[in-house]
From TrEMBL:
This is CENP-V/GFA domain-containing protein. GO terms for molecular function: carbon-sulfur lyase activity; metal ion binding. Keywords: Metal-binding, Zinc. It comes from Tothia fuscella. Gene3D superfamilies: 2.170.150.70. InterPro entries: CENP-V-like, CENP-V/GFA, Mss4-like_sf. The lineage of its organism: Eukaryota, Fungi, Dikarya, Ascomycota, Pezizomycotina. The keyword DNA repair does not apply. The keyword Zinc applies. Belongs to the Gfa family. Residues 13-147 form the CENP-V/GFA domain. SUPFAM superfamilies: Mss4-like.
Amino acid sequence: MSSHPTQFTRRPYKGSCHCGTIKYITYLTLPFPDSPFPSPDPKTGMAERSGQRLYKCNCTVCHKMGILHLRLQNPPTDFLLLSSSLDPMSPEGGISDYTCNKGSNHRYFCANCGVRCFSMRGPMENAEVEVDGKVVKVWRPVAEGWREGKGAPCYLSINAVTLEEGPEGLDLREWHDNGWVKYVDSLDDSPGFSEKP
């Protein structure tokens, strides 16, 4: 009996808020790697390392906002914020910000339709990259010094429900049925990831 190794494919997926003010591209490797979730530190609730994963968190902020976290393998190369604005984070750029946890985590949302597309901690830069055969200006996380994980200064989480449905491999029902959605318990004294809530 021969077994066929799983073919992992990295490809771009588009996402947006409901009205289209916020648009982004993220690069995902599907199917999701079947690797164990890192165990968070009991004191901080943060894992030693990051990596591509999909999970629901039951902390009060994520619960109230309805976030389905999609963490990326390498945010500086895997996330592009498309914007015609010189600074999408300015009031004129259409993106508003809600901070909590002593202001360290920025939960960005559309100032027009209110949809929350991503949360971030760390610097961003303006860059020119090729998208669909054209050079466009984008905002992306700064690669130099980008570190995620326990005690690290950087963090990026996309709200997976803002991904555009349709491209091959992008069906949130399938992601659920395949067991790719994990759960993190942030309310008790021993936070950790599990298969079920």
